[in-house]
Design a protein that fits this description.
It is a single chain. This protein is α+β, with helices and mostly antiparallel strands and about 90 residues long. It has one domain. Helices cover about 45% and strands about 15% of the residues. The termini are far apart.
Amino acid sequence: MEQQETKYILTADALTAILEQAAPYYAPIKEAARIGGVSEAMMRAAVNNRIDPIPHIEVGESRRRKKKLVRVASIRPWLDRQALGTIR
């Protein structure tokens, strides 16, 4: 007996959710910008925003060598919130 191949049609939101689950928890600004589909400058501004920054952590010992990592799961909701013009 021959097995049938199952095919799935995914919406963009479903695919994004699947990819976010497989993605690392945190990503450097450059990678976070790629994931979010925005420029690196916009992602850097989002991290440095004092009113409503995108969730991130700073890692590194010295002030000069600190690196900011963006929480991957928060990219989409943050961008959606910004698009709607709402702040927490």
